[in-house]
Amino acid sequence: MPAVTADTVHLPRLAEPGLGDVDRPVRRITTAPGGYEGEGFPVRRAFAGVRLADLDPFIHMDEMGAVDYGPGEPKGTPWHPHRGFETVTYMIDGTFQHQDSHGGGGLIADGATQWMTAGAGILHIETPPAELVESGGLFHGVQLWVNLPAKDKFAAPRYQSIEGPQVALAASPDGGALVRVIAGDVGTRQGPGSTHTPISVVHVTVSPGATVHVPWNPEFNALAYVLGGRGAVGPQRTAIEAGQLAVFGAGDLVTVGAAERQDSVSPRLEVLLLGGRPIREHVEMHGPFVMNTRAELVQAVEDYQAGRLGVIPAGALMPHRV
């Protein structure tokens, strides 16, 4: 799991918890079921069984892989539409190509993040590059859907490419944890992601036996999804492992600790921390559309069928076949 690595000895350190800081309690642990997406690549449905009210402002998240593909096996998604939200694709291992109908595109690889605001409507494709399809290889990433408030549902589409070296890095006070801030603030560190809805997206790696207290905006909700390894979260040291999600209650910080013994597949605890200011608006969803009313969903489908969400560009990227 390469993502972005660094020597924690020389990084800025998170502050120790203050006397009045409240460690967020764990309200629930859920286990993500498996499924398939796009052309048939395996995913874990990270938010399955969790109320939208607990996820708000997030809507959906898939962990893609981790899977070690053989030659000819890598798969992606064909061209498809979105409206009403933002998609965040974070690649930990492997490579995805992206192209959209508004001119955005490029490679997403090894710690990079693609942040696409669908807004009023967009078409896009995400697919492994030809060389990865030909050779096979390790593939692991996350796609997160971030809701937009009603006032921004029809915002102009936007694309952000956040390369791995752009993320803000920090270490726990003892150097036992590496904190990568993709969006939002953690202590004095600010991530490069620009968001309509105030949120934080943070990838934390914790060495065996170490613990980190991550300061967290008390106005935000807090979720922790385990990408690899095992450990414990919250003040009661609630056990958690790969493929599980913790939903936290109120407080000022999130505590994550790694078990003393890990395994060879994931020698450290890898956790994705998510939080944001709840939008608290009614949500209506249908496939790739996230709106506020059923009438808006009907309009989204009609607009897509009429070509008003965009058109596939000439000479567009297409899935590679062997």
Automatic annotation (TrEMBL):
Quote the Pfam families the UniProt record gives: Pirin, Pirin_C
Residues in domain Pirin N-terminal?
Answer: 42-146
Instruction: Give the domain of life.
Output: Bacteria
Where does the record place the Pirin C-terminal domain?
201-309
Which InterPro entries has this protein been placed in?
Answer: Pirin, Pirin_C_dom, Pirin_N_dom, RmlC-like_jellyroll, RmlC_Cupin_sf
CDD domains reported for this sequence: cupin_pirin_C (cd02247), cupin_pirin_N (cd02909)
Q: Which family does the similarity line name? A: Belongs to the pirin family.
Q: By its UniProt entry, which PANTHER family does this protein fall under? A: PIRIN (PTHR13903:SF8), PIRIN-RELATED (PTHR13903)
Q: What is this protein called?
A: Pirin family protein
* Taxon lineage: Bacteria, Bacillati, Actinomycetota, Actinomycetes, Frankiales
